[in-house]
Every structure is written in C-alpha cells, then in structure tokens.
Amino acid sequence: MADTIRFLHRSRVALRTLLALLPLGMASTAHAGIDQSVEALVAPIADTVSSLIFFSVPLFGTELPLVVLWLVAGAVFSTLYFNFINVRGLRHALKLVRGDYACPKAKGEVSHFQALATAVSGTVGIGNIGGVAIAVSLGGPGVLFWMVLAGFLGMSTKFVECTLATHYRRQNADGSVSGGPMFYLNRGLAERGLPRLGRFMGGFYAVGIVIGCLGIGNMFQSNQAFVQFVNVTGGPEGSWFADKGWLFGLAMAALIGLVILGGIKSIARVTEKIVPFMAVLYCSMALLVIGMNAEAIPFAISAIFHGAFTPEGVAGGALGAIIIGFQRAVFSNEAGIGSAAIAHSAVRTRHPVTEGYVSLLEPFIDTIVICSLTGLVIVTTLYYEPGFAQGVGGIEMTSHAFERNVAWLPIPLSVAALLFAFSTAISWSYYGLKGWSYLFGESQLGRGLFKLLFCSFIVIGAMIQLRSMLSLSDALVFVICVPNILGIYLLAPVVKRELKRYHAKLRDGEIVDHREHREASPAVQREARTAGKSL
To answer: What family does this belong to (predicted)?
Structure first.
C-alpha cells in the first residue's frame, strides 16, 4: 500500500512537471521555426564557451587543448603513483561487485553493484554510439587506439576520485549520504591546511557540475535520442515527429521525472536493471555486425594501428589522432571529471577503497568494451563504403553502419539509444542535484526546483541541433576537471594511506570474504568463529 501511495505521489508530481512544460510545446506548434531560433541563440554561446575552455596551443602542426593535456597528465600520474592499480585491481573489483565483501550494516544507500550500475549509466550514453563515430570521422581509425589507451589510464583516475568521494562523504540527518569532488576538495584540502582554497574549489566544482549536467547530462542525450527516433520513423523528410522535438522532449522528461523523484535508491533500482540489458543488447548487435564484416577485420586492425602512429588522414598527424582519441574517451567515461564519484560515494561500505576498486570497471566497460565495439563497426563499414560517413551526424553514421548489414537493426539500435539517453539523464540528475544541494542546502523545496529545471532542459535539448549541442556539452563537462585533477594531486597520499590500511586488514583477516566462508566446510567456519572473525 505504501509503495502504491508513493508511486501515485510521484505520478502527480511528474504530471505537474509535464503541465508546467506544456506551454513550451504549445508555443512550438505556433512557431514552426522555434528549433532554429533556439539553435541560433545557443550556437554563439557554445562557440564562446568552447573557445575559452578548449584554449589550445600550436604544436607540431596541430592545436593541443590544454585541458586535454591536463586530464592525460592526471591519468598518467594516477596510474604510476598507484603502481598500475588499473591492472592489479581488476580481479578484486569483480569480487567486490558480486558481493563477496558486502556488509549490509555499513553506512550508505546502495550496493556496490547498484553504485557501479548508476555510474555506468551516467557514462554509457549516446556518446558511445554517436560520439565515437564523430571521432573516427574527424581523426580516422587511429583515434580508436588512443581512445582505448585513454580508457585504460582513466581507470586509475577513477580509482582515486571514487575512493576520495567515499572517504570524505557527508552523512545527512535523514540517513542519506552526499559525496563527490566538491566534498573532498573542501574537506580534504582543509585537512592539508588549505581551507580557503578547498572552499573555493568545492564551490567552483559544484557550480560546474550543476551547469554541466544540463548539457552532457540531459540536453545532449535527448538531442541525439530524438535524432535516432526521427530516423527510424521516416527520417527528417518523412517523419511526422521531424519538427516536434518539443513533444519528444516532453515525453522523455515526464518518464525521467518519475524516476528521479525517488532519489538515488529509485535511480539505482532502475539502473541495475536497465544497464545490463542495454549493454548486452548493444554489444550483441555490434558483435553481429562485426561478425558479418569479418572480411574487413584485418583491414580495421591495420587501419587503427597505422592511423595511430602515422600522419595520414588527420590534421596534425598522429598527434591530432591522439588529441581526438583522448578527448572523446574522456567525454565518454568522464575519468578526471569526477562526476561518477558522486554516484559511487552512495555505496554501503566501511572501507572507501572498496568503491575505488569497483570504479575501475567503469571505464573498462564504457570505453574499452562499448566504445571499441562501436569503433570497429564504423571502421569495418569504411572498408566497404569509404565515403559513407560524409555529411551525416554521429548517431546517424552508426545507424547506417548497422543498417548496411541488417535492414531492421536501426530499430533495436534506437531502443538502445533511448535507453542510453534515459539512463544517462537519470544518473546526471543525481550528480547535478548533489552539486545543487552542496550550494543551496538539502531542503525539499530546493531539490524539487532543481528536478523541475533538469526536466525542462531535457525538452530544450530535443530542440537543438547536433553541432552546438556537442560543442556546449564538451565544454561544460570539461571545465570541472581543473579543480578535480588538482585535488587528485594534492590528496593522492590520503588514498595511498587508505589503500595500505585496507590491504593490511585483508591480510590480517579483519575483512572477511563472505563467499569463501559460505563455501568453506563447517569445521573451517567454526575455527573462524573461534578466532573471533566476523562472518
């Protein structure tokens, strides 16, 4: 009965949101050119913001964005400082995700698997389908090599930022938790005698994540989901929905509103079901296409490695491919941005390092697996149709590559795209909400206002064209890496200390592998209890 009442309450609030946004849709029907008007308004803003954030310096015939160099340096530092934790920690991460060391009495709101699913849903989005295709079209097949390398290095960055987020999280009066870069920047730097810098950087990050969530977290997702929806319902010329982005946005906003009203527990319950399904669906389709293009696989592998180290096919040569590959990887898995650490910090655990280990799996799934499969689909298609990528957008390019092999594949691809967009949006709503709450407090009214604002931007995103949307999303999400990477440098010794303590407890048997004990003989279990070890 209580669940029914809660559902009815959420439905009523979602309906209010829908009604509040309805005038926007009515206005769109009265003014057929509203999409172009919004694009004209946003494009100059996006261009200005992008030029500031992606300030570049000329190097060997290409332009090197300093923010990309900043992220790469942070990833390399994290990998070396923690002795390749991205390789050494994978096995332990898998054990944690399956619940071997789970402690139900620990503080937090979600399990390790739910935290990972929520974070993965925030990173595995439309960019995995459309963004990779754009990267290949700009930089050639060689960008895939650098994209995978960036994902590999980014696993170490995730380990550091998610450990810090869990270590410095705040326990709220209602039993919920709040964590993320804004908290570890503030509290962590205060511990190191830099309270003013910590407060400034925490506040800057919080403002950035709120603004960024309205770009990458919902507008870009709804924009590209709408593009794919139009493609499978008749195309820009034949679809009844072609000029009705506002209607698509309203429907998407209402569905997302139903989920995000319940907070992180509601989001986690949805993502732990959606993420495995959408990942398996998309990977299965990609593997099917790659298998049908088996003849082109040697060409694809050769083109990827050749393009990664030779100057052909991209301005600036191999360096240009490196820049595009690393930028697209970070846009996809957000390593160094710190956003996913907000979701990871909600985990139930007594040992913050455990969530650092779990977070290693996120870039692996997002970039090394899903982005690589998308890239192979695109490159193997180039073998048969070298010019197929000309004149089309990101997700349209991927859709064509699927359709070339199986005519009806764009339909399940559109389902996957919608799920990617939906799951990303609900996760980013939580990221933005925590930034909002950090700035304005945990009041119910404030949280409600933010959720209404977030849903409104979903509608706007479905009405904006790809160019300015991609540019604005990139810029808004990259700017917050500046304080986050600086925090990683300053607070890395804290993570190393916690890592040593954790492994000491593992060696001493203070932290018990519950799966091993459940599978052990009764005699072994009695011996463990006699020794005073908690099972």
So the answer is: Belongs to the alanine or glycine:cation symporter (AGCS) (TC 2.A.25) family.
Q: In terms of DSSP H, where are the helices of 349-409?
A: 352-359, 361-363, 372-384, 394-405
Q: Where are the domains of the chain?
A: 34-512+526-531
User: What CATH code is assigned to 34-512+526-531?
Assistant: 1.20.1740.10
For every residue of 5-35, DSSP letters joined together read HHHHHHHHHHHHHHHHHHHHHHHHHH-TTHH
DSSP symbols for 114-176: HHHHHHHHHHSSHIIIIIHHHHHHHH-TTHHHHHHHHHHHHHHHHHHHHHHHHHT-EE-TTS-
Residue 58: how many CA atoms within 13 Å on its side-chain side?
A: 1
Element at 38 (helix H, strand E): helix 34-53
For the question of whether the overall pTM of this predicted structure is more than 0.90, the answer is no
Check if the beta carbon of residue 360 is closer than 8 Å to that of residue 155: yes
| DSSP structure class, residue 59 | E
Q: Which residue has the higher pLDDT, 438 or 104?
A: 438
Q: Which two tokens stand for residue 471?
A: 């540019």
Give the E-state strand segments of 154-303 in sequence order: 170-171, 177-178
- Residue 80 confidence class, pLDDT cut points 50, 70, 90: very high
